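Protocol step 4 of 5: obtain the predicted structure for the target chain.
Materials: sequence only (see below). No template structures provided, no constraints applied. The aim of this step is simply to have a reference model before the mutagenesis design in step 5. Sequence pasted as it appears in the construct record:
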Amino acid sequence: MDTRGKSNVKFRNKVNETLVRHKASFDQLNAALQTILTELQAIRTTQFTQAVPHDINPFAQESSSH
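Step 4 output (structure tokens):
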């Protein structure tokens, strides 16, 4: 194999190694995002099951005198 062929093989190997690292990083990121999505969906479900009635203002301050 000539020098050019060896250089091409080294380059391809480096590119493939980089792609493998990037894929692993994307897989980790995807797993983290999936976990976050699952947690957000659980929060949404909890909020819907504990919904505040529409006639109660959750932002109104409680006071003993009106």
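Step 4 remarks: Helices lie at 3-49. Residues 1 and 65 are 92 Å apart (CA to CA).
Proceed to step 5.
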